[in-house]
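Researcher: Structure prediction, please.
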Amino acid sequence: MCTSDANASPAGLDWVPESCTLPTAEQPIRVAEFDDLFTASVRGAQRVDRTTLRLTVAADAEAQARDLAGRESSCCSFFGFDFAPAGEAVTMTVTVPAAHVAVLDAFAARAAAAAAAGLSAPVAG
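Model: Predicted structure follows.
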């Protein structure tokens, strides 16, 4: 998500990449949408490497995850999202080029924050 680390500012939006075209007023809304997905539907996460994060998403949230991924790709074209069936779940693989690892770090941190709240699995390194 075109957002920064949650600890960087109260809103967590102070280092949005210049390449992001999402209007500033809409950025907190997008963050909240991803937070909702993470807390309600992400069942596990694994940081495959610096540029790849793999999330296990509840199958009933696939449409929501695909919708968010599509909208995120339209404002931050550097994101790559791929979906694959995984039994009773869906694997959502998120990739970024090396120049945008910090954005993926923030994305993974938000998923981990949901895990800390006891709502999903922690991000494995």
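Model: Strands lie at 42-49, 52-58, 80-86, 89-95, 123-124.
Researcher: Thanks, that helps.
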